[in-house]
Amino acid sequence: MANYHFVYKDVEGVSTQWDDIQRKLGNLPLKPPAFKPPSFTPTDDEDSKHKDKAGINDRTEEQLQDLEDDSISMTIASFKSTCIIFRLLILLIMRLVS
After folding, report:
1. Contact yes or no for 22/28 (Cβ under 8 A)
2. Whole-model pTM?
3. Region 43-61: what's the mean pLDDT?
4. 88 or 54: whose pLDDT is higher?
């Protein structure tokens, strides 16, 4: 059997004129204050700070080459995995169509 006793819930902190009048007369208890989340404060960690060129100037040529090689290899690996996924999708679509 269905539940016919549904009670409509509105956005928190919203009330009707009837409820406001009843609260003013003392027939209903006062509303609790609406929830207000604390203000956002970003964290100060080393990864999120802006990096200037001084960090690059302090590195040796080998360290810079290693960084470049790492970023290139990560890009190639990402590209390869994307190609594999697309190939699998094409094979799946071809099987579904035929």
Report:
1. yes
2. 0.32
3. 72
4. 88
16 alpha-carbon distance from chain centroid: 34
Mean pLDDT throughout 60-87? 82
Per-residue three-class SS string for the chain: CCCCCCCCCCCCCCCCHHHHHHHHHCCCCCCCCCCCCCCCCCCCCCCCCCCCCHHHHCCCHHHHHHHHHHHHHHHHHHHHHHHHHHHHHHHHHHHHHC
Q: Is the pLDDT of residue 48 over 70?
A: no
Which residues have a Cβ under 8 Å from the Cβ of 30 and sit 6 or more positions away? 23
Cα 56 from Cα 54, distance rounded (Å): 5
Place of tokens 């990560």: 74
